[in-house]
């Protein structure tokens, strides 16, 4: 009797389908693309006690370079994003990432940036957009850089940002940059 119950239990177990796929193919429904315009100021501070950007690597150059951002230097940033250029204006998020000083000619100062703009208040709290682009700093006040992704409400974002230098100190490297961002995304 026990043997027969065991046999039926085995047959029953073998008859249950096993789903061992680690993926599932889904046909997406009609996703609605959204367009969002953002305006904020990034405060990048390389000097003083409360730095928001620090040099993490510097090239071993044979010629002296006394610039605060010499060619080949890599900086890690955790810059506040504010609603205005004033240091006391409301903080709405932070920019974390890296930038590399990529121009040998100081008169054509250029950086390559990887930055995650994370928003910590308001409608976009918990969302971010990601910039990965070349920023030709000396090419004027309407530089365009590329937005390549996002998370949260900016899921699957793409777009661009126009950057205007609001303040720059050539001795310290401190800067306040105005960002006007246009995002195309599918987030909630």
Could you characterize the architecture of this molecule?
Helix content is 7%, strand content 45%. The chain contains one helix and nine strands, in the order αβββββββββ. It has an eight-stranded antiparallel barrel. A hairpin with a 6-residue loop joins strand 7 and strand 8 (158-168). The longest helix is centred in the N-terminal third of the chain and has 14 residues, at 2-15. The chain is elongated.
Give keywords.
188 residues; mainly beta; eight-stranded antiparallel barrel; 9 strands; 7% helix; elongated
Question: Secondary-structure blueprint of this entry?
Answer:
Blueprint: H1 2-15, E1 34-44, E2 53-57, E3 74-82, E4 91-101, E5 111-119, E6 128-135, E7 143-151, E8 158-168, E9 175-185
Antiparallel strand pairs: 1-3, 1-9, 2-3, 3-4, 4-5, 5-6, 6-7, 7-8, 8-9
